[in-house]
Amino acid sequence: MDYLVKVEAVSRRFPLDHSYVSALDDASLRVSAGEFLAIAGPSGSGKSTLLNLMGCIDKPTSGRIVLDGQDTSALKPARLTALRREKIGFVFQTFNLIPVFTASENVEYPLLVQGVGASERGKRAAAALESVGLLSRAGQRPDLLSGGERQRVAVARAIVHRPALVLADEPTANLDTHNATQLIDLMRDLNRSLGLTFIFSTHDQRLLEHTPRIVRLCDGRVVEDTQRQEVSHG
Ligand SMILES: Nc1ncnc2c1ncn2[C@@H]1O[C@H](COP(=O)(O)OP(=O)(O)OP(=O)(O)O)[C@@H](O)[C@H]1O
Ligand SMILES: [Mg+2]
User: Which of 47, 84, 180, 232 could hold 201 in an S-S bridge, CB 3.0 to 4.6 Å?
Assistant: First the structure.
């Protein structure tokens, strides 16, 4: 079986004064479809840089990223954008919902961009909202929802087009501990029930308890890649 994501000897340097910052340094990582994986590490260790590269938002300085069999470095910008829209769902630290849209309209947005018709959009948005337990709030605008609810709407938006990969960069950074734990548990449930692949970043050690695989970064390098046996709660 081939991997869903292959990060091969990837470095990303950003220019700084007359030198550069090495945000990611010779990182390699392979992720299979259906995995639930956390990228852990302190502030500045390269988590966002790595997620942005895997999400085709940014390009490596050297090395390559293969997404679902496609070498992304070989793609023209338009193809890369199309690949990103089709294959990837993003969840952001600050939710990034459109304030004048209802929850349902926010969730429908990626489908609108893909040219899906209105009735199909409505159906699929309702199913996505149901899967995060918020169907009853479909008609509400984000400002009437709690932080935890807003992030669940953002998760519904990230999965509505059935992406091969969901990337979440510190999705719990603006949530309290209770809501943070709930959000990670929700993503894990969706990973199990729908077979969706999730990669999320966090620097909160407490959120890693139920995470089967943890990749740890330090100073832009992968310093640990741990798989854990599932603990059965049967
Ligand atoms: N656009 C940029 N220009 C210059 N330096 C950058 C840029 N993006 C990231 N860096 C630097 O690269 C390093 C890694 O940054 P990155 O944002 O990936 O870390 P992080 O692990 O996500 O940190 P945090 O936990 O604070 O979000 C840092 O030293 C950062 O200052
Ligand atoms: Mg970051």
Answer: 47
In the chain, the DSSP E strands lie at 5-16, 19-31, 36-40, 62-67, 70-71, 88-91, 165-169, 197-202, 213-218, 221-227
Which ligand gives the minimal distance to the CA of 218?
1
| Residue 168 CB contacts under 8 Å (≥ 6 apart), including other chains | 90, 91, 92, 155, 158, 187, 198, 199, 200, 201
Q: What is the pLDDT of residues 176-225, one digit of tens each?
A: 999 999 999 999 999 999 999 999 999 888 899 889 999 999 999 999 99
The rounded radius of gyration (Å) of the Cα atoms in the chain is 18
Residue 70 pLDDT > 60: yes
The residue-averaged pLDDT of 125-153 equals 97
45 lines ligand 1 (CB under 6 A): yes
Ligand 1 and 160: CB distance under 6 A: no
Rounded distance from Cα 22 to ligand 2 centre (Å)? 14
Question: What was the pLDDT predicted at 232?
Answer: 55
Q: Which residues contact 57 (CB under 8 A, 6 or more apart)?
A: 84
Top mutation candidate among 47, 52, 199, 205 for ligand 1, by most atoms within 8 Å of CB: 47
Ligand 2 centre to CA of 219 (Å) is 13
pTM, to two decimals: 0.95
For the cut 50, the answer to whether the pLDDT of residue 234 exceeds it is no
What residue ranges define each of the domains in the chain, with the CATH number in brackets? Answer: 35-59+85-227 (3.40.50.300)
Q: Measured in angstroms, how far is the CA atom of residue 134 from the centroid of ligand 2?
A: 28
